[in-house]
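User: Reviewer 2 asked us to show a designed sequence for the structure in our supplementary figure. I'm pasting the structure tokens here. Could you produce the per-position amino acids so we can include them in the response letter?
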């Protein structure tokens, strides 16, 4: 194999990894033949690509696509072990010996047993790179739905802005640090916003190539909503971390696996967390144990005993091992420990030495005034001023000098009676994200919504209030695929809509769709081209659509959609696309320095015969493609 072939094979290997993650998110059940067809390669090329990265003998296990993240295991051993297993065949004796020696000789980490420091009242200044987001200026009904409920868009107006504006910073520059300070009074939703950011970013990172879902990608340094009842980080991604509040429901007794020790001791405890979603993965993982213990309630989560070792002191190598259930009774909490928690009812015991800061922290833990109960004599504290409260001084400085500026433009901010908003989005399965789509206020503010890769089937119902479906295509087989198109138009605008042209080209897994509709003397052309579809096929469809518009005496044309052509010189179709658009008096109106996917590529494009047309790239928390939208004048 010559050097050029080696470079080509390694490039193919990178493309396979990227495409595999896309296929895995959308069609985990595809066969190996379908997988090769999607990659547009044969089995020999696939094998050569795998070998290109190998430097030593390596065993590849034959498995389906939906089994790619399952470690190698032995079925009989796994049933006996009842724990994580990752078996590997030994092909290098030296490597095996090196691994065993390094494993048995590594030292245990010491456990730091530290008492919480007293509150520091010294004046401090937040570093100038911090940006502040003041939630006090949002409406009083501020709330933020959790992303895993698929209702991100059902938030209030102001509460939806921070999350999509933050995502581009992290997606496009994941290695660059950023500093945002979220401000606001009690109950405005600081914890909910932080929790939502954490969950959306977890969802983003676990779908990136080479990332494992079991790895911790997001680690809150000071997680909120903890009550310090679970005393150890057991399953942080599952919500069971140090301080997770719970109610003890049942204790299971048994014997430890120690010779000569037949003592019956608590070996497992079942607890109920405040949120049903906490512990879901743990309950699923230990479902056999739960069934064997005869537990019927599906919200009870098993907590196993854990072993932790630490040094007796700094001057000795003696290790102490503690084997116990990581639970602590907590019928009451100090005000410091309750920080960032929220309760329906609380009873605060007031002493004469409580500072204004501690009173604020204690009283703001409750959801409503009706749930606040006080024991002791309450005296109104001295009002905070710049002179006696350094925190207030710093907050004033940040509000005046470090306000967070949003980088995104929301359609609902510019929508009025004198314009028309048209939006395109490769939604990556409307079937999966429809609850989020039909409640997304950003989408609902648009007049025309064009969605590609809906994965829809003819029997599916996707009606949205106040909108009419004017164009729809579905998967032709009983199996859902990366296929399907839906165009919604606001019902009030329907009398002004006319579909001029529609054409679909389907050849195996390759397909392209072009739909042209007129609205108020303007033509909007929606485009979708699958990754392997030839440019010439799409070119012919586009030319027919443009000619049809001109024949109907409509000369202002906007073309938008997923071209699957990278808007950069390195793409072989970039020059052809640009020349075609120039020949038809169309200019690129999106910012070419931006990206439209989570893979840092610009393939969702927008062209127009009117260079003054406003165009924008938005953000999505559910798809790896970003929505793009334009503003048209409404004469």
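Assistant: Here is a per-position design you can include in the supplement:
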């Amino acid at each position: 194999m010559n050097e050029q072939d080696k470079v080509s094979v390694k490039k193919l290997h990178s493309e396979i990894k990227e495409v595999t993650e896309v296929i895995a998110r959308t069609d985990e059940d595809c066969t190996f033949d379908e997988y090769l067809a999607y990659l547009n390669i044969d089995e020999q090329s696939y094998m050569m690509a795998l070998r290109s990265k190998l430097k030593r003998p390596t065993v590849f296990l034959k498995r389906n696509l939906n089994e790619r993240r399952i470690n190698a295991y032995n079925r009989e051993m796994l049933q006996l072990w009842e724990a994580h297993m990752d078996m590997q065949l030994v092909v290098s004796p030296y490597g095996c010996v090196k691994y065993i020696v390094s494993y048995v000789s590594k030292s245990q980490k010491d456990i730091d047993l530290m008492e919480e420091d007293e509150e520091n009242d010294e004046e401090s200044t937040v570093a100038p790179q911090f940006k502040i987001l003041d939630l006090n200026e949002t409406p009083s009904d501020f709330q933020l739905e959790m992303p895993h409920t698929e209702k991100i868009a059902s938030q209030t107006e102001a509460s939806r802005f921070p999350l999509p504006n933050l995502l581009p910073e992290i997606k496009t520059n994941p290695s660059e640090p950023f500093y945002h300070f979220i401000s606001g009074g009690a109950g405005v939703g600081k914890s909910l916003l932080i929790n939502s950011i954490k969950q959306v970013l977890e969802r983003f990172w676990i779908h990136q190539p080479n990332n494992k879902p079991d790895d911790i990608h997001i680690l809150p340094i000071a997680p909120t909503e903890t009550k310090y009842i679970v005393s150890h980080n057991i399953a942080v991604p599952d919500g069971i971390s140090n301080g997770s509040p719970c109610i003890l429901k049942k204790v299971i007794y048994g014997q430890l696996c120690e010779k000569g020790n037949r003592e019956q001791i608590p070996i497992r405890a079942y607890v109920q967390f405040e949120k049903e979603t906490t512990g879901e993965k743990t309950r699923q993982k230990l479902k056999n144990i739960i069934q064997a213990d005869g537990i019927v309630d599906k919200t009870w989560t098993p907590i196993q005993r854990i072993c932790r070792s630490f040094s007796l002191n700094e001057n000795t190598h003696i290790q102490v091992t503690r084997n116990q259930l990581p639970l602590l009774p907590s019928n009451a909490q100090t005000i410091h420990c309750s920080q960032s928690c929220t309760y329906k009812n609380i009873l605060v015991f007031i002493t004469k030495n409580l500072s204004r800061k501690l009173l604020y922290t204690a009283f703001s833990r409750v959801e409503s005034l009706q749930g606040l109960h006080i024991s002791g004599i309450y005296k109104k504290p001295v009002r905070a001023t710049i002179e006696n409260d350094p925190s207030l001084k710093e907050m004033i400085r940040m509000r005046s000098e470090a306000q967070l500026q949003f980088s995104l433009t929301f359609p609902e901010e510019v929508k009025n009676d004198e314009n028309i908003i048209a939006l395109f989005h490769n939604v990556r399965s409307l079937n999966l994200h429809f609850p989020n789509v039909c409640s997304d206020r950003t989408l609902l503010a648009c007049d025309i919504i064009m969605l590609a890769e809906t994965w829809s089937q003819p029997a599916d119902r996707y009606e949205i209030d106040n909108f009419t479906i004017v164009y729809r295509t579905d998967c032709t087989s009983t199996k859902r695929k990366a296929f399907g198109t839906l165009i919604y138009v606001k019902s009030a605008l329907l009398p002004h809509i006319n579909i001029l042209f529609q054409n679909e080209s389907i050849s195996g897994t390759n397909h392209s769709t072009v739909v042209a509709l007129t609205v108020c003397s303007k033509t909007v052309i929606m485009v979708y081209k699958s990754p392997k579809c030839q440019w010439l096929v799409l070119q012919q469809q586009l030319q027919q659509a443009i000619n049809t518009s001109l024949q109907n005496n409509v000369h202002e044309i906007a073309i938008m959609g997923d071209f699957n052509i990278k808007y950069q010189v390195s793409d072989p179709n970039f020059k052809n696309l640009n020349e075609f658009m120039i020949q038809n008096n169309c200019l690129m109106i999106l910012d070419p320095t931006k990206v439209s996917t989570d893979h840092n590529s610009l393939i969702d494009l927008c062209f127009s015969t009117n260079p003054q047309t406003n165009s924008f790239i938005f953000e999505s928390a559910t798809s790896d493609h970003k929505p793009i939208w334009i503003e048209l004048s409404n004469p």
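For the response letter, you might also mention the following. The chain has a mean pLDDT of 81. The radius of gyration is 29 Å.
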